[in-house]
Amino acid sequence: MVEEIVRNLKKDFRVEFRNRSALNLAVAFAGITTLAISLATGGVPFPANIQSVVLWIIMFFCAMNGLAHIFVREEEERTSLFLSLNSSHESIFLSKLIFNVIFFLVLQMIVCPLYIFFLQLQIKSPAVFILTILSGGICISAGTTILGAMVSKAGGRGSLFTIISFPVLLPVLWVAIATTTRSLEDEGYSNYGNIIFFLAFSGVIIAISFLLFRYVWVEE
To answer: What is the DSSP string of 84-146?
Structure first.
């Protein structure tokens, strides 16, 4: 299984870095949105809760622009059957999950500095802020991987992906916004309970997705 996962990851990264369409689209969306908000406010800083809401809305829609394509591309290029014949469904799911986690973390490393710079965020608890961004990103990646497989088989593409992802990710966004707000407002804030929630949520979603992936992906 490890060999299959590594082989699939190499193929996915090779294809992604060859065209970079999903990454370029997500980064362009984040950059244009952040710059537009900064220009519209004239450099006047938002309250911390509004800054948190806008940050996670941007990251949510960046995820919607980028995370489904790893499965949709297999259907568009007619390679899903070949992939199923040469790899077990467990290795396919795990390789796509790892790809999405890495892809979204890279995207966050680009989006967050831009957002902090243009909207002049004053982060009073950097450790909590960074851990919230990272763990929240893993939650979003974990929650959307199985949904991306469902959308690719349904042929619904982006609009359907966003519609079915929002209810699943709403608890994550709710907690992430609240925790990010506290990290911006309270100096020395060190309550990591919400970080544990993110990790537990990711674990449950990954476990359920792992069990159900065969029935979503493999056509019998």
So the answer is: HHHS-HHHHHHHHHHHHHHHHHHHHHHHHHHHHHHHT---S-HHHHHHHHHHHHHHHHHHHHH
- At residue 20 the predicted structure's pLDDT band, cuts being 50, 70 and 90, is low
Write down the pLDDT at residue 154.
73
Phi/psi at 43 (5° precision): 85, 0
How far apart (Å, rounded) are the C-alpha atoms in residues 158 and 65? Answer: 7
Could you give the CA distance from residue 114 to residue 59 in angstroms, rounded to a whole number? 12
Backbone φ, ψ for residue 68 (5° rounding): -80, -20
Alpha carbon distance, N-terminus to C-terminus of the chain? 22
Cα Rg of the chain, angstroms: 18
Global pTM exceeds 0.85: yes
Identify the three-state secondary structure at position 219.
coil
Q: Does residue 24 register a pLDDT over 90? A: no
